[in-house]
Amino acid sequence: MPTTGTGYIPGTVPDKCGPCDCRCSCCCDDQKGISPHPIRYANGEIQLSATDLHSEGFGVEWGHTRTYSNRLNVDTDFGNGFDWLIGQLPYLTHDPDGSIAVVFSSTVAYWFDQSGSSYVPRYGAKQTLTLGDGYFTLTFPDGEVWQFYDLSYTYLHGKFAAMYPPGAAPRPPPPPTTTSSAIFFT
Q1: 175 in a domain, yes or no?
Q2: Is residue 169 part of a domain?
Q3: Environment class of residue 6 by beta-carbon count within 10 Å: exposed (0-12), middle (13-18) or buried (19+)?
Q4: Whole-angstrom distance, CA of residue 86 vs CA of residue 100
Q5: Which residues make Cβ contacts (< 8 Å) with residue 163, sequence separation at least 6?
Q6: pLDDT digit of tens for each residue in the chain (186 aa)?
Q7: By C-alpha distance, which of 154, 164, 185 is closest to 176?
């Protein structure tokens, strides 16, 4: 397993298969290749998941789904204990070569390679990643938009800033302050 260079994203174990175009069970079978115990056949990763809160109102599904991974490169506390990732609070991370990954879980990460001032998706992904004034924007083919603070902020380094459902008019996230936290806009 690489620890630096292309293909290494802190907090994830890289897969060489292409991501699906969404993060839902409607088109992606997250249970494919996972035993009933729940262990992922490909790498022995524990795939323990729990949905603590779920809502489908106001035009977008939202909730709090925790997924435990014993295969993260670094033990990290994302707010729910060590190595529990929150699907609705993705984060952005970078590789020393300029590559960027937007991580939703240990099995859903969208990878982009920097090419000049733009970012090219890896593995045939159809999402786009752009860098604005202090924030990155991830856009899905259906028009769903996720924004993240850029990597220059020490305390908000790649953290989730805002999410817009398809058809909503995205606007720049609020300027960060020392008390900024994840914010959801509709």
Answers
A1: no
A2: no
A3: middle
A4: 19
A5: 60, 144, 145, 146, 147, 184, 185
A6: 333 333 334 444 333 344 444 444 333 445 567 777 888 888 888 888 888 888 887 666 778 888 888 887 778 777 788 888 888 888 888 888 889 999 888 778 899 999 988 899 999 899 999 998 888 999 999 999 999 988 877 667 888 888 888 888 888 887 766 554 544 444
A7: 154
